[in-house]
Amino acid sequence: MMYGTVGLFFISNQIVYGHFLGIHALQIVEGFSIARRLREAWESFLEIIVTFFEFYPVACFSLLYLLLFLVKKAIKKKRQESFSSLLLSFL
Fold this sequence. Notes:
The protein is mainly α. 86% of the residues lie in helices and 0% in strands. It contains four helices and no strands. The protein has helices at residues 2-17, 23-30, 34-55, 59-90. The longest helix has 32 residues, at 59-90. It starts with a helix and ends with a helix. The model has no long low-confidence stretch (mean pLDDT 81).
C-alpha cells in the first residue's frame, strides 16, 4: 500500500510538474541564481503589500499615524536641540 502511494505521488508529480520530484526539484534543476531569487522574492513582497492595502485599507490609517508621530517627534527633538544650543551660547 505504501509503495503504491509513493509511486502515485511520483507519477502525479511527473504529470503536473514534468519532473518526478515535483516543483521543488525544478528550483534545483533550473539553477536559479541568488539574484533572481531575491528579485522574485522582492516582487512577491511588494505584491503582498499592495494586496494587503487593497483588502485592508484601514491599515493606511495606522501608517499615517506612525508617520505623523515620527514627524512630530523629529520636530520636537530639533526644537530641543536648538533650544539647548541657544542656552549654551549664552553661557
